[in-house]
Amino acid sequence: MKLVDKVAIVTGATQGIGLACAARLVAEGARVMLVDIKPEGEQAAQQLGGAARFFAADVSQKADVDAMIAATLEAFGHIDILVNNVGVTHAADFLDLDESDFDRVLRINLKSMFLCGQAAAREMVKRQSGSIINMSSVNSELAIPNQVPYVVSKGGVNQLTKVMALNLAPHGIRVNGIGPGTILTELAKKAVLGSPEARHTILSRTPLGRCGEPEEVAAIAAFLASDDASYMTGQTIYADGGRLALNYTVPVKQ
């Protein structure tokens, strides 16, 4: 186990990639605070055993973030790892997008990572060590026409990762990102895999010929959180089945 005696916070942890990350960190020996706005997180934490706790919070709000940090310190004593995973999408054409929806997605997807990263880093500085992992996306580099705020937010996440890494390096705190392609989460199933035609489109641009699993992203998070990645900071690792390297479509098995 790579993370014995480490304490982690995972946001957006009730399902999908967040829950998979929390489970993998627990399996690697960490104690983990699962954080989500959804109350189902309590059940998720119970399923992970005594090394997991749940805290309900809207991490786009500073007061909730401060309370999350306080609850984690009370439960576990310190903070070594933060997985900034919370995120939402909103589909609308550019000309039809409401300002309120643009602001909401940016607040949840980007501002939350600033707030959580800053608050956790202030605790990590005390120990002169730590690892922060920001969940980005291939859509930080690519664009989907009707996912305007999501694409913008993920581009911002990549730059936030870099500037955090540079600022926090003197304190022994590493900051890296993960950019998943299409992962088989509930969010992806609703947003981009809602029909056979949509599935065909996704697989036609995925050289490995399949979608990813949340556990495959969680494995990267565990690596970045561990000393195996001790000389990595300011990087974003793309778990995308080869999509970003592709400039043409590939045949899809029917």
UniProtKB/TrEMBL annotation:
Keywords: Oxidoreductase. The keyword Lyase does not apply. One of its GO terms (molecular function) is quinone binding. SUPFAM superfamilies: NAD(P)-binding Rossmann-fold domains (SSF51735). One of its GO terms (biological process) is fatty acid biosynthetic process. SMART domains: PKS_KR (SM00822). Residues 6-181 form the Ketoreductase domain. Pfam families: adh_short_C2. It comes from the Bacteria. Belongs to the short-chain dehydrogenases/reductases (SDR) family. PANTHER family: 3-OXOACYL-[ACYL-CARRIER-PROTEIN] REDUCTASE (PTHR42760:SF133), SHORT-CHAIN DEHYDROGENASES/REDUCTASES FAMILY MEMBER (PTHR42760). This is Dehydrogenase. It comes from Massilia psychrophila.
